[in-house]
Amino acid sequence: MMTGEEALRILAGCRERIDVLDRRILDLLNERTRTVEEIGRIKQMLRLPIYEPKREDDVFRNVTENNGGPLPPEAVRRVFERIIDEMRTVQKIRMLDMRQTEKE
User: Fold this and answer.
1) What is the CATH code of the structural domain delimited by 4-103?
2) CA–CA separation, 52 and 92 (whole Å)
3) DSSP 60
4) What's residue 97's pLDDT?
5) What is the mean pLDDT of residues 45-71?
6) Half-sphere exposure for 86 (CA within 13 Å, toward CB)
7) CA angle 72, 85, 56 (to 5 degrees)
């Protein structure tokens, strides 16, 4: 049986691992954002819409089909819905910024 002190030490170690993982996730989200910004520039040049439902369906299919768990597919979809929503906002802001720059 584990003592309270051992449990606290294990808990602290788990939290340290979470902190490291969170920083890795943040790095990946920022890398994804840079790629989304590039896509936004290309879409603006080609006069394509930001919102592409088919592409979003492809993303959801990709992440849910490649999910090895333990996170359930519905949770994966919700997480990526949020990520995609934020990325769409980034694209809109960047496209507005680029239009303002072009007018100046």
Assistant:
1) 1.20.59.10
2) 13
3) H
4) 73
5) 95
6) 10
7) 65
Mean pLDDT, rounded, for 48-64: 94
* Radius of gyration, alpha carbons of the chain: 19
Cα–Cα distance, 83 to 101 (Å, whole number): 27
Mind listing the pLDDT tens digit for each residue in 13-48?
Answer: 999 999 999 999 999 999 999 999 999 889 889 999
**Pairwise CA distance, residues 40 & 46, whole Å:** 10
Q: Which residue has the tokens 């990325």?
A: 87
Where do the domains of the chain lie?
A: 4-103
Model pLDDT, residue 40: 87
Nearest to 80 by CA among 47, 99, 55, 97: 55
Q: Does residue 100 register a pLDDT over 80?
A: no
Whether residue 95 contacts residue 44, with contact meaning beta carbons closer than 8 Å, is answered with yes
Q: Provide the token pair at 4.
A: 């309270």
Quote the longest CA-to-CA distance of the chain.
70
